[in-house]
Amino acid sequence: MQDVEERTLVIFDSLTTLIMSYGNEKVMSLLQVLLKAKAMIVGLVHPECHTAEFVSELMYISDCSVISKKRLNSNSNWIQIRWKKPSGKVTVQVESYKLDDLAGLVSSNVIGKEEQNDENEILPFSTFRLALSEKEELDRKQVVLPFTKKSIESQKTSSQIFYEPDAGDDFDEEDPDEDLTF
Q1: Whole-angstrom Cα distance, residue 26 to residue 54?
Q2: CB 3.0 to 4.6 Å from 39: which of 34, 58, 77, 147, for a disulfide?
Q3: How confident is the model over 126-153, as a mean pLDDT?
Q4: Alpha-carbon gap, residue 77 to 100, rounded angstroms
């Protein structure tokens, strides 16, 4: 990897073949080393051959991914282009296109485009659910946290301390600061 210079382009004809031969961990390690060396990587992956978690890990470390889907019994297809900006924003654009056997690309048009934060898009693999449902999200917003401006304002009007002296109270009649000179 010492020979890899910045802006070196590495093309993998099929990452799927590498993954099948060497395993997920070794291929991910290789990709991480290449990324640390600032190499640009282009690779073809067949997502139907891998687990959804592994495909999402690949998409997480990639700056750009293109997913192509062919509609059955139609010459109209669509692609989803997802690219990540250095700021962490992710832009997803969906385009449809038609192919003709003789002419090649006949037409293409943008179906939709949206931006989102990367942190909301892909959650790490876990044995428990990390996302919140709509009801949980509403409940979370209604919780009043202590020591916030909202909670302090509500305490000013709703709570008071009442003290009633008791016969068993121990009061000193002497001044504890009597030896101090002010």
Answers
A1: 13
A2: 34
A3: 77
A4: 11
